[in-house]
């Protein structure tokens, strides 16, 4: 993956992230100095943060749908609960 060649023979989608990270590692004193670039590179490869965010959004949408459905059921049970 770090070779620079993508699946189509052109530059890989994460190659620029790899180059930034690699350059940082070659000139830094401590590997932790490059942790953000490493994180960017791994996110490009695996999309784990993106998937986590999508899952949180999906779960929240489902929660809101369940809440709305419950409110509709409660509101349609005779309607005599108003003061």
UniProtKB/TrEMBL annotation:
InterPro entries according to UniProt: NADH_UbQ_OxRdtase_FeS-su5 (IPR019342)
Compartments where located: Mitochondrion inner membrane; Mitochondrion intermembrane space
Any GO BP annotation: mitochondrial respiratory chain complex I assembly
Predominant cellular place of this UniProt entry's protein: mitochondrion
Record key words, sorted: Disulfide bond, Electron transport, Membrane, Mitochondrion, Mitochondrion inner membrane, Respiratory chain, Transport
Location of the region described as Disordered in the Swiss-Prot/TrEMBL record: 56-83
Membrane topology: Peripheral membrane protein
Any Pfam family the entry gives: Ndufs5
GO cellular component: mitochondrial inner membrane; mitochondrial intermembrane space
Coiled-coil positions: none
Transmembrane segments: none
Disulphide linkage map: 14-44, 24-34
Family (UniProt): Belongs to the complex I NDUFS5 subunit family.
Biological function: Accessory subunit of the mitochondrial membrane respiratory chain NADH dehydrogenase (Complex I), that is believed not to be involved in catalysis. Complex I functions in the transfer of electrons from NADH to the respiratory chain. The immediate electron acceptor for the enzyme is believed to be ubiquinone.
Protein name, entry field: NADH dehydrogenase [ubiquinone] iron-sulfur protein 5-B
Organism: Anisodus tanguticus
């Amino acid at each position: 993956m770090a070779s620079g060649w993508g699946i189509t023979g052109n530059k890989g989608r994460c190659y620029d992230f790899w180059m930034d990270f690699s350059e940082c590692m070659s000139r830094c004193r401590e590997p932790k100095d490059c942790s953000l670039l490493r994180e960017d590179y791994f996110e490009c490869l695996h999309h784990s943060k993106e998937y986590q965010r999508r899952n949180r959004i999906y779960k929240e949408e489902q929660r809101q749908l369940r809440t709305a459905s419950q409110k509709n059921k409660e509101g349609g049970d005779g309607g005599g609960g108003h003061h």
